[in-house]
Amino acid sequence: xxxxxxxxxxxxxxxxxxxxxxxxxxxxxxxxxxxxxxxxxxxxxxxxxxxxxxxxxxxxxxxxxxxxxxxxxxxxxxxxxxxxxxxxxxxxxxxxxxxxxxxxxxxxxxxxxxxxxxxxxxxxxxxxxxxxxxxxxxxxxxxxxxxxxxxxxxxxxxxxxxxxxxxxxxxxxxxxxxxxxxxxxxxxxxxxxxxxxxxxxxxxxxxxxxxxxxxxxxxxxxxxxxxxxxxxxxxxxxxxxxxxxxxxxxxxxxxxxxxxxx
Length: 262
Description:
By secondary structure, this protein is an alpha/beta fold. The chain is 50% helix and 10% strand.
């Protein structure tokens, strides 16, 4: 058998006629675009950290005004806006003002299925961690441990702002799937539902709001659940939810009838 397929009686590769020829030019362009993917990630991250989607939510702005409001260098911001325009996140209007596109509205924190949290998360720390992937592949240790000489959650525990960004993204990501979870599974038979590693309680909140019977236990690291109160209050489930701090690698709260892991 040929590496490319079966050979016919005349010795020719019978699969060759059925296999499209490699379009080397387009494939190299696609591969190059993949290699430059990190630049797009950092451009989107920077836009969110500067608050550009929020600043443009009220309408188009000239680049100079946008730079002043964002606290950015005007020339650098123009280059950043060009990159965002190339991705379809913003558009430059005929009068030179820049507008947020419908595509770019996904970076607003209030948008349905918002990716604001993810964009704010994937900055310098995660870029550095992925930069250690060759070393991680060789010795098996996580790239984050190699980049910062400590595990991810130890680092986050020592950097509250980074931890808040992490938990806000986890909450946003969970909200996109929570509706499907409560629709697919009946939690009404359970008296006590424990959300293990529940962050700010997005999934547990969805369960408690959909099923009035169970009480909830939100369990995560103490530094995380200490900030969960306002989220539970805003969702109207704080009165039915106990907040417990701890390390789920060591132990989890006892007495639950159902345990959530997500």
